[in-house]
Write a structure and sequence with these properties.
The chain has about 1300 residues and is an alpha+beta fold. Helix content is about 45%, strand content about 10%. Strands 1, 2, 3, 4, 5 and 6 form a 6-stranded antiparallel β-sheet that branches. Strands 10-11-9-12-13 form a 5-stranded mixed β-sheet, with helices on one face. Strands 21-17-23-24-26 form a 5-stranded antiparallel β-sheet, with no helix packed on it. Strand 4 and strand 5 form a beta hairpin. Helix 12 runs antiparallel to helix 16. The radius of gyration is 41 Å and the shape is elongated. The protein starts with a helix and ends in a 5-residue tail after the last helix.
């Protein structure tokens, strides 16, 4: 190929013209790739591989078998920037190999397209017209006859054998897919050389850099018309092929171009840089095939990077749906495996444990149930022909989905397309009809005239002489009436051409308007995305080097700024590779030219801001329709109506005499020397190309000057992005078992890397959150984000368990493995003589605590999930089990146990599977083990409505009290999601089990008794409550008496819980011990003067003031968190460092509590005496005016204290003080009550002079601090307000 030709290639309309078909020299060869696939399938199902090795299948008629096709010719030989990949092109031009027909079969030409994605992500498009050519080689006809006789003998000899094909449902995809002829369905398609004419498929293909689908289809259709026509074309076919390869340029951006086919001109246009990119596939057909509702659901699955499998008998439908939906992603781009037409030999790629978008050809009569797919947990299955989709579980809906569908439907209705889709009026059916009409027009046997005779007829039409001749012919009975019908059809053909152009214009207008609706959604959803992009690197090289460690987008802040209904979708979407790449492109635009899609998107956002100024932090989910539909369609209309450029006409070439000979029905052998290279003379667009090339060279030199090695940069970029990007497109040219093994090894490495990245992200985010709670830094994870990360981990584990899988039950590969493990273990348990417990039956402490040991068992956790009636599917059960194991910090341990059964793993998985790679498997388990360092409540917080068994144990202090009380004790447990209600504890028992709807994280326990019997007084150390599913154990410290005439006389106490950290088995008993009496308890045991352990540790004034400030500060921080992540307010009010505890210390400071020969006095006694004093003062009356507000304040105070005193609950004096503080905080009254108590004359009798309550310098700051919580709406748990009526 000449240098000139190669120099012009980037600006050429077409890069290659290819012919594929049968090689008459090598004859009939079975398709090696099909044989390789049979071998792989035999290996997968454990069958004998001998038959597969033979590559023959005598059960099928030879007319139904696949034979090897070959690239017969391609022009030019190769071009520098798009090297010709012969194997890939051959495979995609003829995905099923060669197919044979006889004269009784349907031989209508078929059009389909394909694309090849190169490793750098760039794409090349192929457009193919397949037609049938008569076989002239006697050797091939004889070979077919022999094969048919062998098949007939084999078939008649095994009548009782099963008629099913030896390859299973996936392999059947290689069979002929269309059901246009009933003869095809007959398994004995016959062939007799003496009687039948044999035809074989041949493919004509154009390979182009841009998807000009309509133009390429017209060009190829006209080429075929020239071949099938009785008259030779005006010029040799080489002229037209040379013209489109070398003389037709790509239309310039924003311009239209006209070039010439064999018979008619062809027009194409290209959008300008400010418009949406080129999309020539008909969205009208996509909506007709799927309907709006289904399309939006599939579109959502693609955005969330799930695995999408398209399924249809028609290759072009697969391509149209895949390309149509991906063009709607603007400004994002699909980043993973993209194979719209998956050749039968590549079906093992469905095993790929990465997101993919693939198209699989179905066989007539094969339904979804017969299709065994390796991975289904995260699969979106789209049966195009049957208007049916199967969605993954738990997938979020697209924001404003209903309004979005209504807006799209309104656009479709304007073009007369029903939004629900119309399955039977698809483009492919009308296309086949129109091709048949073309054949009729050019077929001499039907009495039609060829093209030049038509031109003569047009001149004579309406001539009086012709009319007289026609009249004469009628009288004499000569049938020249056909000439008239032909004339009529010619006029109709002209009208048809105009109609076709109008149809094209309508399709192009529809395409752009629908795409604008989709683009408008993203423009509004991500209008402020730039504000959250983190630009941290100084230069491109340092950014690329540290890409993996950098946070590029402030996800938490972005989500907090979004409307609530958008969050389920957006929290998943911002974790995808396509969003990460979009943000990467934004950051790189600091140093490089903006990526084209990003440039268009940013300019749209800028324009939107100019016309519609957004209010900062506007969190509105109001739907805003696109306002530029008509405007966007006008530019396309203008380009199609007024052509900007016309290419050089096809012309005679310098060809050898005798070549380019025409023979009807046969595609000629093209003269290679005239097609091998382009013209040597420079034309205007070639020089334009040269200028562009020089500009490119300068830019390349400039980038090299910057010192950034392009290979190194590409390496960083590839490594920084996920596995899917490295394997965007399977390499089609080499499919040896060694290459397949190497590909699977890449998958294994990629899965391990993804696991490392995900666990690291989960740890960093979670640890960051916990550090905030400890007072360090700022939170960067939300509950929503945490849930998204865990869902992403569940998805990764399903993909790992699906890789190399050969035996599966149900849709979840992980749950299938667990079920088979459970079945084996339960059989072993039955055969074992005595079951061995994994630990001691009970764990005891010095106080006689007996909390039964909770057995740690993978099988037990499975049974818990199986007992949850709310989970209906295997995928749901697998996710529930992962969440439960993660919450229990047993995920790595359980999976290690599961995989330790190597015999089972070998039975279920192929040799190359991830789970059979020992070193990678160990690293995977280690990464999961690191998640044990943080606490997750991902099971408890998600399954909020399930019934959970709880166990409560009451632990008395035996040394100082009775172990058992004679009264009737009761307990009530509350959590963030509800409470258990009061449960009576049987006498002489310290343990109770109960089933209750999930309480969430436990916050309080109430314990009490009715004070009956001789030994009613009871000194309780603590209450322990355990969730029997998750194993979370909560300790509710008490350390106080329950009984009349002892302590503060309480018969009921509200205890605040603390979660005990899980620990090693040997430390379990230590963990549950009651703290020794000489030590202060670790949790909310009151620092009351009457508590057992409080006397030794009285805080000083500074510590008390600091504790109050800290308690109020924690409440303020609580309300500044998002509502779903606030946790328990009860702990902040009544916990160890809560507001009640801090105020209790304040009131105890300098309090004269001890009395000689008398009972101890409590703070509540002071409050009751103050109330009595206020009520007495009120009765006496006071005339001073300034005390009016004072009087109303103490009336309210007295009302609250009296309401607490008359409550039917048997709460002690310290408990009543707790109630008063909580109610005062809720109703914002604490700052009013403290001055009342300070001014009360009784204070001098009951407090030392040094008391904080008597010091105005400390009281005034306290009042100001308490006023800071006035702006918050405090809601109290029912246990804190039950029985109090105000």
């Amino acid at each position: 190929m000449s240098a000139t030709g190669s120099g012009m290639a980037p600006c050429r309309f077409a890069h290659y013209f290819v012919i594929c078909g049968i090689d008459t020299e090598t004859g009939l060869e079975p398709d090696e790739l099909a044989a390789l696939y049979q071998w792989l399938e035999a290996d997968r199902h454990g069958r004998s591989q001998d038959a597969a090795n033979a590559g023959e299948n005598f059960e099928q008629s030879p007319l139904r078998r696949t034979f090897k096709s070959k690239v017969l010719a391609h022009f030019p030989e190769t071009i520098e920037w798009n090297p010709f990949d012969q194997d890939a092109v051959n495979m995609l031009c003829m995905p099923k190999g060669l197919s044979f027909r006889t004269q009784v079969d349907n031989r209508e030409p078929q059009f389909h397209s394909y694309l090849i994605t190169r490793e750098d992500g760039s794409r090349t498009y192929g457009f193919v017209l397949t037609f049938y050519e008569e076989v002239t080689s006697k050797q091939i006809c004889t070979a077919m006859q022999t094969l048919y006789q062998m098949h007939h003998a084999e078939h008649s000899g095994s009548v009782c054998a099963s008629s099913s094909c030896s390859m299973d449902s996936l392999a059947s995809s290689m069979d002929e897919g269309d059901a246009t002829s009933l003869n095809k369905l007959h398994c004995c398609s016959s062939y007799d050389m003496s009687r039948d004419t044999l035809y074989v498929s041949k493919a004509l293909c154009l390979i182009t850099p841009l998807p000009f689908m309509q133009a390429c289809r017209k060009f190829l259709t006209q080429l075929h018309r020239a071949v099938s026509s009785q008259q030779p074309p005006p010029l040799p076919l080489e002229s037209y092929i040379h013209n489109i390869l070398y003389e037709v340029p790509l239309p310039a951006p924003g311009r239209s171009l006209k070039f010439h086919g064999v018979y008619e001109p062809i027009v194409c246009q290209r959008p300008s840089p400010s418009e949406l990119p080129l999309a020539d596939y008909s969205l009208k057909q996509v909506f007709e095939l799927l309907g709006v509702e289904n399309l939006v659901q599939v579109f959502t699955c693609i955005l969330l990077e799930m695995q999408i499998l398209l399924y249809s008998q028609d290759y072009q439908r697969l391509m149209t749906v895949a390309e149509g939906i991906t063009t709607l992603l603007f400004p994002f781009q699909w980043q993973h495996v993209y194979v719209p037409i998956l050749p039968a030999s590549l079906l093992h790629f469905l095993d790929a444990p990465v997101p993919y978008l693939m198209g699989l050809q179905s066989k007539a009569g094969t339904d979804r149930s017969k299709l065994e797919l390796p991975q289904e947990a995260n699969l979106c299955f789209v049966d195009i022909d049957n208007h049916f989709i199967e969605l993954p579980e738990d997938f979020p809906q697209f924001p404003n989905k209903l309004e979005f569908i209504q807006e799209i439907s309104a656009v479709l209705l304007q073009f007369g397309i029903p939004p629900e889709g119309s399955l039977h009026c698809s483009e492919s059916a009308t296309q086949l009809k129109s091709l048949a009409l073309h054949d009729l027009v050019n077929d001499k046997k039907n009495g039609n005239l060829p093209g030049d005779a038509l031109a003569v007829f047009e001149l004579l039409q309406g001539n009086a002489t012709v009319e007289r001749l026609q009249a004469l012919a009628k009288r004499t009975g000569v049938t020249v009436g056909r000439v008239q019908t032909l004339g009529g059809s010619t006029v109709k053909e002209k009208d048809g051409r105009l109609q076709c152009e109008e149809e094209e214009l309508r399709d192009a207008t529809l395409n752009v308007q629908v795409r604008e609706v989709f683009a408008n959604r993203f423009s509004h959803m991500f209008a402020d995305y730039e504000a959250f992009v983190i630009q941290s690197a100084m230069d491109l090289e340092s950014w690329l080097t540290n890409r993996e460690q950098m946070h590029n987008f402030d996800k938490a802040s972005f989500l907090s700024d979004q409307p609530e209904p958008y969050l389920p979708f957006l929290s998943h979407f911002i974790e995808t590779q396509m969003f990460a790449t979009f943000i990467d492109n934004k950051i790189m635009s600091q140093w490089e030219d903006k990526e084209p899609l990003l440039r268009v998107f940013d300019s749209r956002i800028e324009k939107m801001r100019l016309y519609n100024v957004r209010i900062p932090n506007l969190r509105s989910s109001n739907y805003q329709k696109s306002t530029i539909l008509k405007e966007s369609a006008q530019s396309i209309e203008q380009r199609l109506m007024k052509i900007d450029h016309t290419a050089i006409h096809p012309h005679l070439l310098d060809m050898k005499i005798g070549q380019g000979k025409y023979e009807q029905g046969f595609f000629p052998k093209l003269q290679a020397d005239v097609l091998a290279a382009g013209p040597t003379n420079n034309n205007r667009w070639a020089s334009r190309t040269g200028t562009a090339q020089r500009r490119k060279d300068r830019l390349r030199q400039h980038s090299e000057h910057l010192g950034l090695d392009n290979d190194l940069r590409e390496k960083y970029m590839q490594e920084a992005r996920s596995l899917g990007k490295n394997l965007r497109q399977p390499k089609l040219s080499d499919l040896s078992p060694a290459v397949i093994a190497q590909t699977n090894w890449k998958f294994v490495e990629g899965l391990l890397k993804e696991c490392r990245m995900k666990t690291k992200r989960m740890l960093v985010e979670k640890m960051g959150h916990e550090a905030v709670e400890l007072g360090h830094g700022e939170a960067n994870i939300t509950g929503l984000e945490e849930n998204t990360l865990i869902a992403s981990l569940c998805d990764l584990m399903e993909r790992i368990w699906s890789h190399g899988l050969q035996v599966k039950q149900g849709k979840s590969a992980l749950w299938s493995h667990l079920l088979q493990y459970q079945e084996r273990e339960e059989k072993l348990e039955q055969t074992a003589v005595s079951p061995v417990l994994l630990g001691p039956e009970r764990r005891k402490s010095e106080t006689g605590l007996t909390m039964p040991f909770l057995r740690v068992s993978l099988i037990q956790d499975m049974r818990h999930i199986q007992n949850v009636s709310e989970i209906k599917t295997d995928v749901g059960r697998a996710r529930g089990w992962i969440r439960l194991s993660l919450e229990k910090k047993l995920l790595s341990q359980h999976l290690k146990q599961l995989l330790s059964n190597q015999a089972l793993t070998k039975k279920l998985y192929k040799r190359y599977a991830f789970l059979r790679c020992e070193e990678e498997k160990e690293q995977f388990l280690y990464h999961l083990l690191t998640l044990n360092t943080v606490d997750y409540f991902c099971f408890t917080s998600v399954f909020t409505t399930i019934m959970i068994p709880y166990r409560a144990v009451i632990i008395p202090i035996k040394k100082l009290s009775n172990a058992i009380t004679t009264s009737n004790p009761w307990v009530s447990v509350s959590g963030e999601l509800g409470d258990s209600g009061v449960m009576q504890i049987p006498k002489n028992v310290l343990e109770i089990t109960f089933d209750c709807q999930n309480l969430g994280k436990l916050t309080t326990a109430q314990i009490g008794h009715d004070n009956s019997g001789l030994l009613a007084k009871w000194l309780v150390d603590c209450v322990m409550v355990r969730n029997e599913i998750t194993g979370h154990t909560y300790k509710f410290p008490c350390g106080r008496w329950l009984g009349k005439g002892v302590d503060d006389g309480s018969l009921e106490r509200i205890l605040i819980g603390e979660l005990l950290m899980p620990c090693a088995d040997e430390d379990l008993s230590k963990q549950c011990r009651t703290p020794p009496l000489q030590r202060s308890p670790t949790q909310t045991r009151r620092l009351s003067i009457t508590s057992l352990a409080g006397r030794n540790n009285k805080p000083n004034a500074g510590q008390i003031q600091e504790a109050i400030g800290e308690a109020v500060n924690n409440i303020v921080k609580h309300f500044h968190k998002p509502e779903k992540e606030r946790g328990s307010l009860t702990i902040l009010l009544c916990g160890e460092n809560g507001l009640v505890s801090a105020l209790e210390q304040f009131f105890h400071h300098g309090f004269k509590s001890s009395r000689i020969f008398q009972k101890n006095v409590f703070v509540w006694d002071f409050i009751e005496k103050a109330v009595a004093y206020f009520e007495m003062t009120d009765q006496i009356g006071d005339t001073e005016e300034e005390t009016e507000s004072f009087r109303s304040m103490y009336k309210v105070f007295c009302h609250y204290v009296n309401a607490i005193n008359v409550t039917p609950r048997n709460i002690g004096k310290d408990g009543k003080f707790q109630f008063l503080v909580c109610l005062g905080a809720r109703d914002h009254l604490l700052p009013q009550w403290i001055p009342l108590l300070v001014e009360c004359p009784l204070i001098t009798r009951m407090y030392e002079e040094c008391a904080l309550l008597r010091d105005h310098l400390t009281v005034n700051p306290l009042i100001r601090v308490l006023q800071t919580i006035h702006e918050f709406n405090i809601t109290l748990e029912s246990s804190l307000v039950k029985g109090i009526t105000l």
